[in-house]
User: What shape does this take?
Amino acid sequence: MIKEIDTLFNSALHASRDLLQLSEKQINQVLEAVADEAVAQAAYIVEQNRLDLDRMEKTDPKYDRLLLNKERIMAIASDLRKVASLPSPLNRTLDKRTLPNGLELKKKTTPFGVIGIIYEARPNVSFDVFSLCLKAGSVALLKGGSDAHFSNLAIVGLIHDVLISHRINPNVCILLPDGREATAKLLEAEKYVDLIIPRGGQGLIRFVRENAKVPVIETGAGICHTYFHDEGNLQKGKAIITNAKTRKVSVCNALDCLLIAKSRLLDLPLLCEELASFNVEIFADRDAFSVLENHYPNHLLKRATADSFGTEFLSYKMAIKSVDAIEDALGHIATYSSKHSEAIVSESAEAIELFTHCVDAACVYSNASTAFTDGAQFGMGAEIGISTQKMHARGPMALDEICSYKWIITGNGQTRS
Assistant: This one.
C-alpha cells in the first residue's frame, strides 16, 4: 500500500509539470466535456451513489451531503461550465516596476502545483475540486471519505476517460485509496504536495491541522449565529432564520444559534413558527424557554445546557440565547463563533455598522441568510472550500485563492555590489 501511494504522489508531481503546457482553450474544452459526460452518465453516477447511500442510515446528517440525483448532477454540470467560462487566474501581472538599477520586476500568478483535498461524504466535491484545480493549473489529489467510495470511483473514472480522450495526463486528477494510511501519507507528503485543504467537520479539520507537515488552509467548520436586534424587522427575521436553519442542515453555513434581544422575546414564537414544520429541535435558555413554552411543540423544545452553545449541529437542531444588548451578542459570538458566517437582523444602520465592524468572521451579513456563503452564490462558479482562517485566503475560495505567484526579474547584465 505504501509503495502504491508513493507511486501516486510521484505521478501527481509529474502531471503538475504536464499541466503547465496546457493552453486555456484546452482546459476549457476538458471542463465542458466533463460537464457533458456527467449529464450523459447521470444514471450511472446515481446508480453508483445508491450503493453508498444504501450503507448509510437516512437519519445520518451526512446522508443529504452524500446524495446525488439527476437534478444535482445537472447543477454540477452547470458549475463546471461556469468555471470553464471564467477568465484564467494564471499568468496575471499583479505588480510591475523598474528599479533604479534598471532591473524590471513582474509579479505574476502561478499554480500551486499539487493540491490535496481531504473530504468526507461529499461526492460533488470531486467534480468541484477537479474543475477548479485544472483551471488554476494544479493537480487535484483527492482523499474522499469511504462513505462515498463508489460515487467517487465513478466520478473520477468519468474524468479520466475525458482526459484520456483529450490526450491529457489522467494523473492531473488522482483519487487516493480508502483508509487512514493514505490520509497519513498525504499529510506528510511535503516533497510532493504543495497545499492541503480539509473539507468536513471540526474533528476532521482539527486532525489535519494537528498532523499535517504540508501547509494547510482550514475550511468548513461553521458555527453560525443570527442576532435578532431590538430594531429587527419581524417578517425579515422570520424568513432569514427559517432559511438559514432549514434550507440545508448538513452544510457549514447553516444556522446553529439564534441570539435575540430580550426586548423582543415576545416575538420569539412567531420567529420560530415555521421551524416547527421542519421538526427543528430547539435548545433555549431560561428566558427563551419560558416564552416558547406552550407556543412551540413540547417534544421539540428543550432547555439549553452549556454544550448547546458553540456546537455545529449539522441537523435539525438549533440553540437560542437571549441577550440584553448588542455588546452581549458580540461577546457571545466572539466566544463561540468558528469565524465562518454571522448575521444581524436590524433596521438600525448604527447597529449594523457596529456588528459588521466588530464581528470577526469570514462572512458577516446584515438582513440576509448565512446560507449565501457559497462560492457559486458569490459568482465564483464553484468553490474548493470556505476558509475560516486569515492567512492567504478567507471565505469562499475559488480560482484566485488557489493560485500563488512568483517574481520574474529581467536584467541586462546587472550585478550587485
User: Anything to note?
Assistant: The first helix runs from residue 2 to 19. The radius of gyration is 24 Å.
